[in-house]
């Protein structure tokens, strides 16, 4: 790296800018590649069914803090976040591979604890662990999971099918995982100052579970099938509602009006936000890690699911020229922004 | 991790012992999973063709040293090592995903340099880059590549089909990558003491390329097809000949007699070994990273390939009870041992 002339900081481009720069010139060469970079998963055609392929990387100190994240939970979550990408394609996950890089601070028992969470998630979601790589690391723990799933070609839902007039819906509630993280961070800071202090976590079991042991939503995919609808576009909420809406808008060439008052949030999320003097909406818009499904449906299909309490209509897709906005309580319109990660240090 | 009672060091089990402990209780649940953990790649059945799925993880300081490994070469190699696993199944690689974790020392241009190598390997081998994840790291660079390939079910070659009497063959020559690494390490040590010293690399272009920009062997797979043979078992040489032979023996329940005098090595490999006062055979047996294909064929099929100078018969598979041995020049028999990684620190 000593010979470099230019040094553009990655933070100048941001995550999405960097990915765009690295992948914009890719020309697909294989017949079996139906969809490459740019959705929750790639789509491949190997016969009767389509194969859906996705992957994620979790690094210690960035995605998790082993001071308060139990290894079993971490293993579980590392699988769940990948399955979520497959459900976001309206597909069924089937197999995963797990790569881990371990520093010498890990004992065999610690690795087994991590794997017990991986196996538990495989058990719960009916997934086969079919391979992987374990290796040394000079520093912390890194976990990379790849997942394969399947779907009939016509069942696949991309980020690109939303139309003007479609209803924007979300499953479950949002912001809980982020507020759970804030609580864990706060108690960890207290602990660092005085390690006799017991963490104050009572009454926040829901948001702690959202952070530490999130679930993904096969039931949502099953519900679509049962009531006979197919979303026009879909994505999972890993980076926060705001980013994900922007992905659907960009993918589908539409705009969006997101109704602030409709964004579903649990009482614990709101209570924690109040305690920490944060606007709870921020946790939903920019917090991320909810692993709920955000999707659009035609107004006709919306009629079929509107009575299910697990779904909330939170906005409407509009013409691309109108842009993507949050409509606040007083009627003011605030442009939505996509946030990826940025280097903190 | 503070509550742990037992602390078994990973080095007590070794890589293969750890993997065995983590995966021995897996029960496959999906019809589409034909082969899980335990070969170069998993095998999945999604229709007319089988999908072959493999993954690898490379970490800075363990798998590569950025003091002397150019980023473009690193990108290239990180793809090649994965493709090699697919060819080792007698299958064709088609798609990859690439996950990278980056510390803030990397500029956009440095990441582009890495990706230029990734793209070059995709171009050369006809592979589509279809997805991945880029993220921050608090420390060094981590690269995780996953690869999908395809094969007709009957064409797949596993580690498990070798029979007593089969001939053990290898493509190309061995030990070069390891001797290239020794040379680079030596010159790096010199440079650390005196950074005005120019590295002495002349006359060693072949072993340097074997280490820095290895290729994989689609031509071997093509040759099998052309001459109409199918190996009875196959594996790629990533950890060293000794380990890979043990994998074939264990997978196929056979023993092996490896003829020391037949192990193919390039003159540069031997010369460098002499210069460093190392037995060159050690680089072939335990060096690894050659990414050649090690396979067994029936004696009849061996007749069809024995005139191809790219293949060398190096031994014979024998009854399991006889074990796996290196037959040295004087006729003495030395038991082969499988080496995986062990934690260095």
From TrEMBL, chains A, B:
Role played: Catalyzes the ATP-dependent phosphorylation of thiamine-monophosphate (TMP) to form thiamine-pyrophosphate (TPP), the active form of vitamin B1.
Residue positions binding Mg(2+) 2: 56, 85
UniProt pathway annotation: Cofactor biosynthesis; thiamine diphosphate biosynthesis; thiamine diphosphate from thiamine phosphate: step 1/1
Domain PurM-like C-terminal intervals: 163-321
Residues involved in Mg(2+) 5 binding: 239
Source organism of this protein record: Tangfeifania diversioriginum
Additional information: Reaction mechanism of ThiL seems to utilize a direct, inline transfer of the gamma-phosphate of ATP to TMP rather than a phosphorylated enzyme intermediate.
UniProt cross-references to InterPro entries, sorted A to Z: PurM-like_C_dom, PurM-like_C_sf, PurM-like_N, PurM-like_N_sf, ThiL-like
Residues annotated as domain PurM-like N-terminal: 38-150
Protein's name according to its UniProt entry: Thiamine-monophosphate kinase
Residue numbers binding Mg(2+) 3: 40, 85, 236
Residues annotated to bind substrate: 63, 289, 341
Enzyme Commission numbers on file: 2.7.4.16
